[in-house]
Amino acid sequence: MPQVYAMNGGNGPQSYNQNSSFQRGAVEVAKELIKEEIDKELDVKQLSSTSVHPFRIADFGCSTGPNTFVAMKVIREALEEKLRKEGLASEVPEFQVFFNDHISNDFNTLFASLPQERHYLAAGVPGDFHKVLLPKASLHFAHSSCSLHWLSDVPKEVTDNTSPAWNKGKIHYGGAKKEVLEVYASQFAKDLESFLNARAHELVDGGLMALVIPAVLDAIRESQTTIVTEKELEVLGYCLMDLAKKVRFH
Ligand SMILES: C[S@@+](CC[C@H](N)C(=O)[O-])C[C@H]1O[C@@H](n2cnc3c(N)ncnc32)[C@H](O)[C@@H]1O
């Protein structure tokens, strides 16, 4: 079983709640794109004639908030707007939002901070989003932001000093050999495929999916794109390893 680490819970100074303005930026940037795509791509007439209410949205890797609430509001409002535009204002359905994250996520903080004025029913769906979490053909809109780059496991080759992809104990692949990059990329491909297969099972015919994933253009060296430098990551890596050794020996 790979170990699973959720974000820091609660509302304190070290919590994800108080330290997620970077990820909030991604949600803000995606807003207009999501609105445009719902307007362009969603066949609400077909959906309202073939599927049963309520209209179901899921956020995969929602953490403890508050960014997920911003994203869910944008999606719900865009769907409502689309229905009005298509002359289906009288048929605006109930909305149900499924908040998904690892079972160790602080769902108490998430649910305690649900916005009062939210116009949707809320439910928690704990578990690994690489697996099926919802019934077949039950979901209308799948959303995930800043979560899909989390690998389900560390590729074993990077910690094996007999492998050509050994990463010499580093915590990051920036500036590493191509073999290291390749095993991380192959783990990502496997994880993404599992995620997409699970969503293919859950989404209704004609449903939509919005995935916001931090990415790197091929033309840019990955070491030039991180928000911290390669050297800083190396120092951070050594500190973490020293810390881990101390914890193990005490
Ligand atoms: C950086 S946070 C992003 C949270 C939120 N989407 C946002 O934009 O603020 C990434 C979240 O993905 C969750 N996550 C990572 N892998 C997951 C998995 N396999 N299944 C469910 N949640 C996962 C983590 O627990 C974490 O809460």
From TrEMBL:
InterPro entries xrefs: MeTrfase_7, SAM-dependent_MTases_sf
GO MF, one example: methyltransferase activity
Region described as Disordered: spans on this chain: 1-20
SUPFAM superfamilies noted in UniProt: S-adenosyl-L-methionine-dependent methyltransferases (SSF53335)
Alphabetized PANTHER family for the sequence: S-ADENOSYL-L-METHIONINE:CARBOXYL METHYLTRANSFERASE FAMILY PROTEIN (PTHR31009)
Family membership noted in the UniProt record: Belongs to the methyltransferase superfamily. Type-7 methyltransferase family.
Protein name: S-adenosylmethionine-dependent methyltransferase
Source species of the chain: Coffea canephora (Robusta coffee)
